[in-house]
Design goal:
5-stranded mixed beta barrel, 114 residues, 3 helices
Length: 114
């Protein structure tokens, strides 16, 4: 776990949509919670169930290496990610973004500082 100062330093350099190659390290309850991803930083990455396919068997398995984009980062020491590979995204992702986060396309490339 990173110190608060280290988290502030890491977060300062992050941008929405920034891509990291990551390894899925934990899938605690496929279809129910989300997945934990190691993206090589001292803070963890997490993909929320809301961004993943409906069926848990369509989620990336532990050990899967794939690209992930920064979806969100707030005061919690965790980087929220979205899969870059459409196989690992909910099938209605474009509609989901329109309903839930319509500003997403314009946020890509912007710093996550808040």
């Amino acid at each position: 776990m990173a110190t608060d100062a280290e988290w502030a330093r890491i977060r300062r350099d992050l941008c929405f949509g920034q891509v990291f190659e990551g390894t899925v390290v934990k899938v605690p309850r496929p279809g129910a919670i989300g997945i934990f991803v190691d993206i090589g930083l001292s803070v963890g990455g997490f993909v929320d169930v809301l961004l993943l396919p409906d069926e848990g068997e369509d989620w990336p398995a532990e050990g899967t290496v794939a690209d992930f984009e920064i979806w969100w980062a707030d005061s919690r020491q965790q980087i929220r990610l979205k899969p870059s590979d459409s196989r690992y995204l909910r099938t209605d992702f474009a509609d989901f973004v329109e309903r839930v986060r319509p500003s997403w396309p314009s946020e890509v490339g912007q710093p996550v500082r808040g």
